[in-house]
Amino acid sequence: MDDKTTEIELRLLLEALFQKYCYDFRGYSMASIKRRLFQAREHFDCRTFSQLQDRVLHDPAVLSKLLSFLTVRVSELFRNPAYFLAIREKVIPYLRTYPSIKVWVAGCGAGEEVYSLAILFREEGLENRTMFYGTDISPEALEKAKAGVYKLDRIPLFTENHRQSGGKSSLSDYYSAAYQAAIFDKNLRRRVVFSDHSLATDGVFAEVQFISCRNVLIYFDRELQDRAVGLFKDSLARKGFLGLGFKESLRFNRHADTFTEFARSERIYQKRGDL
Amino acid sequence: MTATQAEAIVIGASAGALEALSILLPALPQDYPLPIMVVVHLSPDRESMLAELLRAKCSLDAREVEDKEPIQGGTIYFAPPDYHLLVEVDKHLSLSIEEPVHHSRPSIDVLFETAADAYGAALIGIVLTGASNDGSQGLKAVVSAGGTALIQRPDLAYIPTMPQAALDACPEAQVMSLEQITAYLQERSTPL
After folding, report:
1. Do A163 and A241 sit in the same domain of this protein?
2. What is the pTM of this model?
């Protein structure tokens, strides 16, 4: 599907995005980003990546559409219920001992994970002393996250996930349905800050007790993964928790020694207490 | 014409996969030098027993992939349920939860296209039984990169749709029975 020239053009396009707009995809896993850039190239009807580069450099409207190709992520409420069950049963008792709690969902996309955690913390009676940060690089995703509106046909899946995660109430308590959409309770957002933050270029912004970053690092190459996990290490309080996706691990990461396996099969790690 | 020495194998299968793979994979010897990456269409909401079942039958190590795992010879790598499996040019594996392709995540096309990119002519791509069109584009990519394309004989497959679709897209592929594919792979067992 390519040759040396395509490879060069592709790297130049990523460099252009960084230099002009500060979006840094240069450390992303190539196999995946290449596929998506080919899709974008087709969408914009460009013959080469140089043509696409020309358009994105001169037209910010092309940028925002291109970003939606590059940051595409699909999630669901209470995705992998076993993860949320482990938070409920193993992490929450620990967090309960803190007078105030900060939770960071890094790469929050359209906010599904943030709403899941906000619901879980409400059910566990911790909502009022918790602050949630949901961050992402995509302005479009952050707008969706703030709106908290999901397609109605996804609700049965969300409901089943919530039940399996040990949900103590009915998910329908948290949304109202209208016009093929489910709108989540604005009160759930009372303690939530959605904001722009890049794991590739930005730094630490708060000390937190729990970070959930699932299926985000898979899009990074190993060097960028090292940077992101380093950032998590510096953001976490002593004995703070880091939750990853079910097929992600710190095994290949430079900061592996900083963490211990807390809930092994649910991929929840704990920062060591002596650091 | 000098044939390029094979460096890796990718296999895609759907309905009937377990039976077909149970003939193919256990036949490979313990010192088999090539890595084998496999996508089987699975239900996304369940843990897959596939790697475990085949590990019990195979002399090669068989396991579900973890993100950023380096690729090693003599290992069978399975795409985990609900993740695409991709090969990076520097020969390690990565995962993604991008949209399903042909309604499938994992998708055979995604694995084959990225593996073709990474291995070029040194790749063997194999499409087995299944009721889908997934794998056709991927196998085409394997051929375009100079690699070898094998397809299970549609009339002998548990479900012929997927191998037939691959054959329609890739007429230059070699069509074989499972036994012939097994023998073909065994011949590649001479260490590089």
Report:
1. yes
2. 0.92
